[in-house]
């Protein structure tokens, strides 16, 4: 019934697309949907790598049956236990009661917790191998990319890396599965957004995993979200490497809140100064309108960060405070930081923004601006100075690389 995509000889894509869910993890918008990728290898032994969200288990199980053509399923490899990938395990076990479930010790604790499964388990550790007949699999532990049980599975013949969530993106697959068969332009920003929203805190574990991959040859990357990377695999790895080192591009993200437009006028003046001083990549986010998902994407994307807030009940504007909390959780490093504020009777915003920058250990650009009530000429000039200071800081940062 299903026309299945072959990743290699007898290696099939059996994933599904979700174009219904509005928010991933009930947090992050999915304007282009999302795919849940699963892969089946048919050899002397058959092995399924990860499952899909339980909402799509019916189509998923029929795809597996079509690919098996009457064969039994010998193994299920669980690279990642998050429910969007492990949600169909219990139903799969009901369909194939003799299937052995392969994972590591941490996997099995979660398997019992989510599904009550404690039997038919096959534990693997770093570097262990499994022969399927003509093909052999090797297991690479990748804890905290981005859960503690995560591991990669490496197929040695065609050099395929089944990478769990690593190198994944938001965005459903529209017909084609492999990158060389589609226009992948829209997936690059969705990869950055996915990383910033989901993986962002775990830069050091990602770096450790990437170092392990340096020791093996990879021709194809099969992530659990987004395209199969073959033609563009090096770019996918490069993006994850850069993001996990917190190496922002040359540009500035301006984040601000504004109740009556005065703080917004300051943001506009700063942006104009940045442009006048040669900064071409400038993005502005009004936190009352921009979704945190997109704000975080640009915080990860650009080296410069400027935050502005009015004083609100002797604290930060609530939506500014909220996005700063999300940035802090992700432990974003290596940013050039500036800030500005506005108040009517008692200024507190700039003090709190300065304290936040110090907590994050960011490089302060040496200029700020804080206006009382409406924007006046002298403070307008301070906004211009702030923009120029950020532009200079980015130039100096670029020269030091």
Summarize the structure.
This protein is an alpha/beta fold.
How would you describe this protein?
Residues 252-391 form the Flavodoxin-like domain. In the N-terminal section; belongs to the zinc metallo-hydrolase group 3 family. The protein has 401 residues and is α/β, with parallel strands linked by helices. The chain has helices at 57-68, 83-86, 89-95, 105-115, 185-199, 203-213, 233-244, 262-276, 292-301, 318-329, 349-359, 377-400, and strands at 5-8, 11-13, 16-18, 23-24, 28-29, 34-36, 39-42, 46-49, 75-77, 100-103, 121-123, 129-131, 136-141, 151-155, 160-162, 220-222, 249-256, 282-286, 302-312, 315-316, 336-343, 363-372. The chain has 2 domains: 5-244, Ribonuclease Z/Hydroxyacylglutathione hydrolase-like (Metallo-beta-lactamase, Chain A, 4-Layer Sandwich); 253-400, Rossmann fold (3-Layer(aba) Sandwich), CATH 3.40.50.360. Helix content is 36%, strand content 25%. The strands form 5 sheets. A 7-stranded mixed β-sheet has the order 1-2-7-8-9-10-11. A hairpin with a 3-residue loop joins strand 4 (23-24) and strand 5 (28-29). Helix 5 runs parallel beside helix 7, helix 5 packs across helix 9 (292-301) and helix 8 packs across helix 12 (377-400). The longest helix has 24 residues, at 377-400. It starts with a strand and ends with a helix. The relative contact order is 0.10.
């Amino acid at each position: 019934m299903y026309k299945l995509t072959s990743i290699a000889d007898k290696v099939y894509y059996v994933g599904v697309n979700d174009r219904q869910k509005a928010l991933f993890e009930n947090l992050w918008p999915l304007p282009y949907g999302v795919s849940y990728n699963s892969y089946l290898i048919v050899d002397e032994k058959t092995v399924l790598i990860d499952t899909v969200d339980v909402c799509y288990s019916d189509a998923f199980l029929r795809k597996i049956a079509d690919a098996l053509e009457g064969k039994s399923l010998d193994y299920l490899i669980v690279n990642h236990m998050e429910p969007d990938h492990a949600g169909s395990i219990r139903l799969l076990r009901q369909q194939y009661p003799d299937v052995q479930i392969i994972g590591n010790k941490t996997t099995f604790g979660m398997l019992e917790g989510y599904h009550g499964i404690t039997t038919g388990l096959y534990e693997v550790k770093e570097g262990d191998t499994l022969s399927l007949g003509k093909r052999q699999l090797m297991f690479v532990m990748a804890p905290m990319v981005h859960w503690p049980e995560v591991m990669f599975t490496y197929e040695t013949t065609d050099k395929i890396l089944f990478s769990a969530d690593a190198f994944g993106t938001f965005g459903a697959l529209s017909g084609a599965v492999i990158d060389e068969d589609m226009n992948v332009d829209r997936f690059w920003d969705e990869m950055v957004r996915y990383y910033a929203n989901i993986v962002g805190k775990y830069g050091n574990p990602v770096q450790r995993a990437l170092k392990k991959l340096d020791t093996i040859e990879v021709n194809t990357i099969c992530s659990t979200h987004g395209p199969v990377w073959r033609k563009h695999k090096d770019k996918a790895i490069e993006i994850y490497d850069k993001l996990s080192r917190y190496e922002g591009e040359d540009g500035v993200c301006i984040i601000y809140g504004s109740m009556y437009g005065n703080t917004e006028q300051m943001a506009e003046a700063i942006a104009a100064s940045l442009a006048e001083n040669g900064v071409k990549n400038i993005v502005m986010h009004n936190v009352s309108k921009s979704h945190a998902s997109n704000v975080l994407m640009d915080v990860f994307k650009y080296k410069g960060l400027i935050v502005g807030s009015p004083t609100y009940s002797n604290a930060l504007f609530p939506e500014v405070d909220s996005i700063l909390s999300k940035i802090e959780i992700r432990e974003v490093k290596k940013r050039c930081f500036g800030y500005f504020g506005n108040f009517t009777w008692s200024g507190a915003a700039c003090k709190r923004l300065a304290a936040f920058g110090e907590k994050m250990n960011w490089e302060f650009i040496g200029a700020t601006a804080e206006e009382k009530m409406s924007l006046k000429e002298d403070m307008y000039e301070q906004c211009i100075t702030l923009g120029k200071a950020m532009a200079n800081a980015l130039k100096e940062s670029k020269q030091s690389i």
